[in-house]
Design brief:
The protein has about 400 residues and is α/β, with parallel strands linked by helices. It has helices at about 15-25, 40-50, 60-70, 90-95, 115-120, 140-150, 200-215, 230, 245-250, 260-275, 305-320, 350-360, 370-390; strands spanning about 55-60, 80-85, 100-105, 125-130, 155-160, 165, 170, 180, 195-200, 280-285, 290, 295-300, 325, 360-365. Helix 2 crosses helix 9. It binds pyridoxal-5'-phosphate (PLP).
Length: about 400
């Protein structure tokens, strides 16, 4: 069997999951609330311990976790929620599901939130902030947290694709009131689908547990004796966003592997980034000393390209079997704010727009070997160089 990894591969599932999954196939015990301590409950305990948080709630996706966070921090219909203009469509969707209005903040070509725009837009009309650590790029969380605290606005972190990233030695997803992570197949931990919410706040976890679908007294199976569940009994609608035991069983044995995956991902990223940065046609956003990345993908900006040349990068790379995506040049890319027509009036954000028109996106699964990486680097350099030769008409 070849160990060659392509940029399209997901993380394999450890053998240790097999025995637990086999037993479940016999018992049929896939529902989290049948046994007193289920695979889902164990995942919550183990993940919270790994991250150093008090409480965890596993759900069926990070999108669900972000939506629950909106409701748990008190976002009401008609409220305004500040979000980055560069994020996955799940974030504005969660805000809209909560009946609120997303207010978009500019993201610069360094792929971090523009702090002047953030400070200006965090006014008295904002009820909550969601920060997306998009593709592992961390914005200035010290400044963001300080501004939110000063103005009394709850901060939610969408760390869906940033598991293992540190900001000033703190794990991202544990800085705000709530942190949300994804176990969808193309993230650092592969559960097929799945998400988890972390918090240290007993009221937030109580509300989230109920709304995720802990009907009747199923909250008792979460085993948090100090959480005031009884106070909130029957106070919230149920959305049934629960995780099932099969997902938890394939996720659990991957938790002890996160640190190793992060180390490999970072080594791979630095190797590829250095080679790409040697080309005058490419600029990889510079590192920030306060951030330790946990990348399983790489983003780079095309330098001095016009639209036609940028399009050509996508065409040539796709024709050669390894597509280089440019966020804002791909029709209907879900990470491009002008495609979020469901939010109503899409604002004009020139800084983010310019970034999206030249920012390229490739996956770098952590299992890639040096050979795999070298092939990817040559592929990128070839495509970019050839596309640049196109004389714009
Ligand atoms: C993947 C991702 C999501 C959504 O995660 P799901 O588990 O698929 O719902 C949200 N935000 C970001 C930044 C993501 O990368």
């Amino acid at each position: 069997m070849s160990s060659k990894r392509s940029v399209y591969d997901a993380e394999p599932i450890p053998e240790a999951a097999r025995e637990v999954v086999e037993a479940m196939m016999q018992s049929g015990d896939l529902f989290r609330y049948t046994s007193k301590i289920s695979q889902v409950t164990l995942l919550e305990k183990e993940f919270a311990a790994y991250m150093g948080s008090k409480y965890a709630l596993a759900v069926n996706s990070a999108s669900s976790a972000i939506y629950l966070s909106m409701l748990c921090v008190g976002v009401k219909p008609g409220d305004q929620v500040l979000i980055p203009a560069w994020t996955f469509a799940a974030v504005p969707s969660a805000v809209v599901h909560a009946g609120a209005l997303p207010v978009l903040v500019e993201v610069g070509e360094n792929l971090r939130i523009d702090m002047d725009d953030f400070a200006a837009k965090l006014d008295g009309n904002i009820s909550a902030v969601v920060i997306s650590h998009m593709r592992g790029h961390t914005s200035d969380m010290d400044a963001i947290k300080a501004l939110c605290d000063e103005r009394g606005v709850p901060l939610v972190e969408d760390a869906a694709h940033s598991l293992g990233t540190l900001w000033n030695n703190r794990k991202v997803g544990t800085i705000g009131a709530v942190g949300c992570f994804s176990f969808q197949s193309y993230k650092m931990v592969n559960g097929g689908e799945g998400g988890i919410l972390l918090t240290d706040d007993a009221d937030i976890i109580a509300k989230a547990v109920f709304m995720s679908g802990a009907y009747e007294h199923n909250w008792a199976k979460h085993g948090y004796p100090e959480v005031p569940f009884e106070k909130y009994q029957n106070q919230f609608p149920l959305f049934n966003l629960r995780m099932n035991n099969l997902s938890a069983a394939v996720i659990r044995p991957q938790i002890p592997l996160i640190d190793e995956r992060v180390g490999k991902g970072l080594t791979n990223y630095n190797y590829v980034a250095e080679k790409l940065n040697a080309s005058p046609l490419i600029s990889v956003p510079p590192a920030d000393m306060r951030e330790r990345r946990a990348p399983d993908s790489l983003q780079f900006n095309l330098v001095g390209f016009d639209d036609a040349q940028a399009m050509r990068v996508m065409e040539i790379s796709a024709a050669r079997g390894q597509a280089i995506a440019i966020f804002g040049m791909q029709g209907d890319n879900a990470r491009v704010f002008w495609n979020w027509r469901f939010i109503g009036n899409v604002p004009e954000l020139p800084i983010t727009r310019a970034m999206l028109k030249r920012a390229c996106d490739i996956r770098l699964p952590v299992g890639m070997s040096r050979e795999d990486l070298d092939e990817t680097v040559s592929h990128i350099l070839d495509c970019v160089t050839e596309a640049r030769m196109l004389i714009a008409s």
